[in-house]
Amino acid sequence: MKFNKLIFVFIALCTLKSTALFSQEKGTGPKEKSFQSERKIRKALKKEAKEKRRKEKAEQKAIKKHHKRIQTKKVRKRMKSSKKTAIRNNENKRDPFFKRLFKKKKKVR
Do 74 and 68 form a contact (C-beta atoms < 8 A)? Predict the structure, then answer.
């Protein structure tokens, strides 16, 4: 009886050990990508994005240039002064000293 148990335990240990050896083989898991191939892919994507941004910027610039070109000279001057005023207001700066000095006073009622 003891002999049968001993053989059974021995066979069980052998099978467990053999499955553990099989589970550590190299070909079973997903293959890892090499660092260099990932780097090449990242570099290509970065280059594509940069080119796309450059094209979009150029297109926006062309649209702006066309819009400006179709305006008359008076309108272009007015646009320029409006732009300066808007920039100054956004930066929370006052009018220049001489402009404030010679500006018409508002009537108070």
Answer: no
pLDDT tens track of the chain, all 109 residues? Answer: 666 766 766 677 666 655 555 555 555 555 666 888 899 999 999 999 999 999 999 999 999 999 989 999 999 999 999 999 999 999 999 988 998 899 888 888 7
Whole-model pTM: value is 0.43
Sequence spans of domains, the chain: 37-92
Report whether 41 contacts 48 (CB < 8 A): no
Terminal CA-CA length for the chain? 119
Length of the chain: 109
The Cα-based distances of 45 to 50, 54, 84 in angstroms read 9, 14, 39
